[in-house]
Amino acid sequence: MDLQVNILAIVVAVFVNSVIGFLWYAKLFMKPWTREMGYDPNMRPDAKTMAKGIALMVAGNFLFAWILAFYLAGWKYIPGSSEVGTASFALNSAISVWIGFFVPVHLSRVVWEKHSWKLFIINSGYHLVGTCVVALILAFWT
């Protein structure tokens, strides 16, 4: 079995997922997210902290896209998988990854870290959207 992944698709997916994260947390949900996290909305991190945060986010997005690319490549070996359209294949895979990996982590944060259900929706919603978009990029570009 030779799993093929497209590194350019992974790089594009990392960039797009980073833009989604910026829009999600800095534009769409900045006020409710900062309130739910207990942060001062007027506080801005210094340049060093911001650079470290961006570097770690990009590294995390790369690892996520890299592993998801291999996950998608592996699914192609399942009998009958070629009969499903590319978008359906990508979204079905993305939703299964979201339900199996992201939702349990966010649920445990509600229980053990006292995160609110609002924060659960904001954070898990970002992971659902990001996972779907990354899966679509990888599926169509492989």
Number of folding domains? 1
- Overall 3D geometry? globular
Distance between the termini: 16 Å
The number of E-state strands comes to 0
Overall pLDDT confidence? 93
What would you report as the Rg, rounded to the nearest angstrom? 17 Å
Structural class: mainly alpha
Mind describing the biggest β-sheet? none
The helix content is over 70%
Explain the overall architecture.
The protein has 142 residues and is mainly alpha-helical. The protein has one domain (7-140). The chain has five helices and no strands. Helix 4 runs antiparallel to helix 5 (117-140). The chain starts with 6 loop residues before the first helix and ends with a helix. The model has no long low-confidence stretch (mean pLDDT 93).
What is the topological layout?
Layout (H helix, E strand, L loop, with lengths): L6 H22 L1 H8 L9 H29 L10 H27 L4 H24 L2
Helix pairs in contact: 1-3, 1-5, 3-5, 4-5
What are the salient characteristics of this protein?
142 residues
TL;DR of this structure?
The chain is 77% helix and 0% strand. With 142 residues, the chain is mainly α.
